[in-house]
């Protein structure tokens, strides 16, 4: 089961806000990707690299993806700048077994929308409200070591209706004081791969430094990591054998 | 599809609170069952009767159940007074195709717990908070004619974790101002039957007079009503036929 | 609930095989769309029209879609000839509430793949094997009036792994004598709409004249038909109100 | 995540057939439990013990269960001999986080029926047919290291309709030559625990010596093992805090 092999994580970030906006740079001076990567690097069992939008091929070459077990994705304002060819490459790699964790505003990333098949639209409000994420599937590995809920003191609000397919497993539901709820931890199988959407992580708040949030991301990476599932054959096949049954 | 046949609904109520407690009688002078039944009687396509705990066989004789397409259930303090034999009878009838709608405190009824296989436990608080039920599956027939959310001005709070199996379809998630969320509209297939759990309806509030709540209950009754599904054969069977394939 | 309003069905067919291949024309002289439409026209509660690939805008103008409650889709060899603009139009209409029923080789249609987010690939074999579709959710309205299984004497085989998201509800599983199984009746909610994939219907076999198959398609059309679900608001919203709670 | 802690497995077996019937004793001379346990003992990461029906408290004392992460269950003819008190104890322990793997004829065990809430009835036939289990969720950890399908040369047939709740995740579907299909690898979350039903394993066939079957059971034990999920609080709670939001 590869327990002794590290899980190879690539943390992808748009990484523009942090360079263009002093307020956001103050929160994430090295970029959101580094805030996530530095935590995972300190955990046993992970091998971590990062990639960003403005690198060649967005840092997501065939080689990088081939050696990635879990891709973590954060994007916000530049979704349209991600090349369709790279999106298709990531999509194929997910269906072939790579895990994908889409964070916060990545609900509108090309790759998440392509995998979901829906608009992934939602309601939002940016007042820095207290988000409370309730665990609703306490036996799921992504909830291991988590309390009954996670409080994030200041976050952007996302509210239902969230236009996604019903999750295969719903792990968290968020509560916001202004009157909204949100399906905020959503597991999907797609092809041989797994996808986890996790709601928190607005660029103007220090969410990715919060211990519980980091812990959930690490849990999710373990859950989503490539497993050695069957190699699938498609296309024209012969009858598997002559079978007869007699009573 | 039986569109011209009325859906035969039996509304079951514990009907003790309304007799023992003047405050509750003031809200539901004829009992909660009548508040629900009177609405359904006014809608086209329903044939409605009621049954209560203190009737012989709790009003749920073999004959009554055989002629019931949807059983609506409200209980609270006297769950233990429901005879196991009647619970088993209702259970068998659900698996054979009768719909069951369990309301509010019926999460702790014997029949709901038996069908769920879990404790059905939850958090609660009785401050008369504003409940807001968000639709999270807007194409489901139970959400037909409903707005984005339903506000109930005063309700008992129920909070997660709600110890139920993951719903086959989750239609509503409730928000409460005190910090909780709740999966408040839950659809299940069980055997040839269908079960809907709907959270609102505390005995001290006039919830069952509210138009949106009544509308959802009628939608749920239409969804849960017996369909003419296959008669199932169990047990020892012969191979269905000799089958050969040649490439 | 609109019981008195007919369900407006548009049956869409590629309609090329029937014109180019005498063998297929012999089976479906007026086209597969007409074989399906003629049955629905005879059922109460439907208003039926057809549309085909080679009509302007593939027969799927904004006006046609706006007045369609359920779109039934059959395509096979000319998936690539369907304009992306029309696919996007159908996609948007499904998310807005229109039902979509994709038949057989339409698993590879652009619209189905776009809604699923996966390759929708599978195994296949064309020996005219006996397909047996077992009902595995007997309380679902699509299984109403169906026996324990449906036997289709001669069909193309489709086998797992079928690269689709786990269905919201799985109604049928097919058995083939050559050794394969297939998830052959798959329900999905997408946005405010509903999608049903139904496996049978190869162009060289008279499947769409078989009573049980026609019955399932009619059931599916009733299940998938637009319901009057909530109009969804997306985007920036205000906190719904000031809410305070005191213990 | 406890990767360094062994998973504590208890293999429970009715263990009567093997003592009363020479033919079955010839297949499993030390009992089915030992055939399963001996494999797990050889795998890294497991600590294994066994328990059987005729031990005091069926070998399932409070202490044993408290120190069990995964309970594997095989029963057939003596389901009724399992004391209700022990069933309730196992049930409570599953809801509190223990994994449960029910094998083959254990579909009719008291504990499985209690957790499912349905009859768990099915069709069966004992001709020693070839069972072929197809993987339909290739990214699930229970399918890790498995081929596209598993062939078991001789098994009892089980056929649909299998009266269970729709699995949270369906990993395997079985094909039988006599014309049947069966949902044969079914995952459920229940409370803080996880349940896996796995179909193969008739007492008269050497199924539990087959490498692929053993491999799946080990995968399932890893998947089902207790995770350190949130301790749940039920009952009356205070509003979590005073929250105010201003636009």
Instruction: Bin the strand percentage of chain A.
Output: 25-35%
Approximate helicity band of chain A: 10-25%
Order of helices and strands of chain A: EHHHEHEHEHEEEEEHE
Query: What is the 3D form of chain A?
Result: globular
Largest sheet of chain A: 9 strands, mixed
* DSSP E strands of chain A, number: 10
How would you describe the oligomerization state of the chains in this entry? Answer: homotetramer
> How far apart lie the N and C ends of chain A?
41 Å
The strand order across the widest sheet of chain A is 2-1-3-4-9-8-7-5-6
Give the largest interface: B-C, 46 and 45 residues
**Helix count, DSSP H or I runs of 4 or more residues of chain A:** 7
The poorly predicted ranges of chain A are none
Give the overall average pLDDT of chain A.
Answer: 95
Q: Would you tell me the structural class of the helices and strands of chain A? A: alpha/beta
Taking all Cα atoms into account, the compactness measure Rg of chain A is 19 Å
Please describe what this structure looks like.
Four copies of one chain form a homotetramer. By secondary structure, chain A is α/β, with parallel strands linked by helices. Helix content of chain A is 24%, strand content 30%. The first copy, chain A, contains seven helices and ten strands. Chain A has helices at residues 17-20, 22-27, 32-42, 62-66, 84-95, 110-116, 211-224; strands at residues 7-13, 46-52, 70-74, 99-103, 123-135, 149-159, 169-175, 181-190, 193-198, 235-236. In chain A, strands 2-1-3-4-9-8-7-5-6 form a nine-stranded mixed sheet. In chain A, helix 5 (84-95) links the parallel strand 3 and strand 4. Chain A is globular, with a radius of gyration of 19 Å. Chains C and D meet through strand 5 and strand 7 of C and strand 5 and strand 7 of D. Strand 10 (235-236) of chain B pairs parallel with strand 5 of chain D.
């Amino acid at each position: 089961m590869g327990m002794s092999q590290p899980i190879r994580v690539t943390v992808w970030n748009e990484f523009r806000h942090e360079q263009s906006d002093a307020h956001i740079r103050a929160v994430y001076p090295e970029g959101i990707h580094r805030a996530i990567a530095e935590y995972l690097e300190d955990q046993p069992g992970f091998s971590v690299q990062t990639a960003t939008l403005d690198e060649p091929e967005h840092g997501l070459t065939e080689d990088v993806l081939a050696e990635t077990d879990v891709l973590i994705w954060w994007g916000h304002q530049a979704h349209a700048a991600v090349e369709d060819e790279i999106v298709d490459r990531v999509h194929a790699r997910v269906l072939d077994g790579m895990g994908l964790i889409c964070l916060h505003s990545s609900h509108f990333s090309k790759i998440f929308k392509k995998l979901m098949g829906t608009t992934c639209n939602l309601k939002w409000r940016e007042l820095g409200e207290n988000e409370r994420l309730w665990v609703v599937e306490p036996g799921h590995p992504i909830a291991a070591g988590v309390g009954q809920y996670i409080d994030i003191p200041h976050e952007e609000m996302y509210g239902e209706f969230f236009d996604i397919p019903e999750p295969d497993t719903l792990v968290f539901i968020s509560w916001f004081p202004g009157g909204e709820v949100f399906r905020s931890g959503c597991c999907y199988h797609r092809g041989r791969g797994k996808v986890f959407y996790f709601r928190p992580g607005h660029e103007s708040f220090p969410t990715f430094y919060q211990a519980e949030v980091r812990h959930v991301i690490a849990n999710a990476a373990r859950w989503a990591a490539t497993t050695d599932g069957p190699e699938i054959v498609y296309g024209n096949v012969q009858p598997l054998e002559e079978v007869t049954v007699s009573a």
